[in-house]
Write a structure and sequence with these properties.
single chain, 256 residues, alpha+beta, five-stranded antiparallel sheet, three-stranded antiparallel sheet
């Protein structure tokens, strides 16, 4: 069985009353109601684990959640998170280690905040955050639920933003400081912002980098873009510079 760092060392959430465990069912009785159907399904799995003895908690939360969604279909799996189909219009991202929790935390905070900050046109560039784990069992949300995006092609991307995707890849890393662009790249940038959607994109990327510390390099790959209806959206915002430095950047080896 895989070991999940300190998943099972976290304290029981305050809203679960140990004295009010319903002995006629296999789930804990909780004080706080969660209306969302996805949250209820996942919360029951977590409550079941935490209502058991300490030794029984060694079972993997991630294994339990992945089993829950197995029938819906696994869409993809990385080193930190697994993506499942939630319903026909949503996906569930489940963290399966510490860096997955950190990415879920970062993505949740960014999408939550930007929904307030951005106007109606610019928010269309991001998938909607439908719901996320609010149980505080661990150091970050074990799961989050987003609008489901389909794959987008470079040609579809170009039709939306008005420039060639490869050209966009040449300048995207510098869109946090457009003034640094050289003359050739400035031509590409000017073409981008002449397109209304392109101008909105430039503004959102600038905000992501300078306010939320999201490295822009990943957006030069079409895999980090998707489409929802007639919208073209960014599909992965969890890898902030802080997450990268904490979990992915190679540490220098000591010389002694």
């Amino acid at each position: 069985m895989k070991k999940l760092f300190n998943y099972f060392e976290a304290p029981l959430p305050d809203y679960i009353d140990r004295e009010r465990i319903d002995r006629t069912t296999k789930f804990s009785v909780v004080k706080k109601e969660i209306a969302d159907k996805t949250a209820i399904r996942i919360k029951k799995i977590l409550d079941k684990i935490y209502s058991k003895s300490a030794s029984a908690r060694k079972q993997s939360t991630v294994d339990a959640l992945e089993k829950l969604f197995a029938k819906d279909g696994q869409l993809g799996k990385g080193t930190a998170r697994t993506v499942f189909l939630g319903n026909k219009n949503t996906v569930i991202k489940i963290a399966h280690n510490e860096k997955g929790l950190a990415q879920n935390q970062a993505e949740t905070e960014i999408l939550d905040s930007m929904e307030i900050e951005l106007d109606a046109d610019k928010i269309q560039l991001l998938p909607k955050l439908v719901d996320y784990d609010r149980t505080s069992y661990f150091r970050g949300p074990v799961w989050l639920e987003l609008e489901k995006a389909q794959k987008v092609t470079p040609k579809e991307w170009e039709a939306k933003f008005g420039i060639n995707f490869k050209d966009f890849g040449k300048i995207v890393r510098q869109l946090d400081r457009p003034a640094r662009l050289d003359d050739d790249d400035k031509i590409i940038y000017d073409k981008l912002i002449k397109n209304e959607n392109g101008a909105n994109l430039a503004d959102v990327l600038y905000l992501l980098s300078n306010t939320y510390d999201v490295p822009l390099g990943d957006f030069d790959g079409i895999r980090n873009w998707g489409k929802i209806g007639n919208r073209v959206v960014m599909v992965d915002l969890g890898l902030t510079q802080d997450v990268y430095n904490s979990y992915y950047k190679r540490k220098p080896k000591p010389r002694w």
